[in-house]
Amino acid sequence: AQSVTQPDIHITVSEGASLELRCNYSYGATPYLFWYVQSPGQGLQLLLKYFSGDTLVQGIKGFEAEFKRSQSSFNLRKPSVHWSDAAEYFCAVGEAAGNKLTFGGGTRVLVKP
Amino acid sequence: DADVTQTPRNRITKTGKRIMLECSQTKGHDRMYWYRQDPGLGLRLIYYSFDVKDINKGEISDGYSVSRQAQAKFSLSLESAIPNQTALYFCATRDGARETQYFGPGTRLLVL
Description:
- The structure holds 2 protein chains of 2 kinds.
- By secondary structure, chain A is mainly β.
- Chain A is built from no helices and 12 strands.
- In chain B, strands 2, 4, 5, 6, 9, 10 and 11 form a 7-stranded mixed beta sheet that branches. Chain B has a 4-stranded antiparallel beta sheet with strand order 1-3-8-7, with no helix packed on it.
- The mean pLDDT of chain B is about 95.
- At the A-B interface, strand 5, strand 6 and strand 11 of A face strand 4, strand 5, strand 9 and strand 10 of B.
């Protein structure tokens, strides 16, 4: 069965600093990987996705993620965070493109002024 | 993006009551999903539907049922609500062309 681990429950970062959120997955075949963001009181918004090809993928809001098959990881990064990036971030793996997603427990990001 | 709406947005109910959460979408996506979100557990799949006649159980379907009334509508029912069903519930649709799920705004349910 597929699974996703987000080791960091909370991360606090200063505005303007870089951010990296960790995601490790377990899946027997080629993974379809996603990052979603949930702002307070909102639904989930897709940040980026990886299906195949270039292992560094660019998303919205200045985020990028790197797929590393050898480490079973799909970490999310942003070079310089803004106060509006305060939210909860979820990594997910799908058994097929976009179907039956399995989510990690989420990482809540707090941004200090 | 898919226009996915959920009603109600908030609901308080009592143990033993039957309630229904509704989901509608306007983009013509065939596949629809129900998830629940609990702190620290992320989202877990309750049921999913590939079309009106194809409904499947997800990871945590016990205590829930669903109905796909039309391509655009997918309802989740709690036949006899219990307090540990207190959670945030999300509906999602899948865009086959973009191979991506899009989520509604969620329904916050409190079972007393």
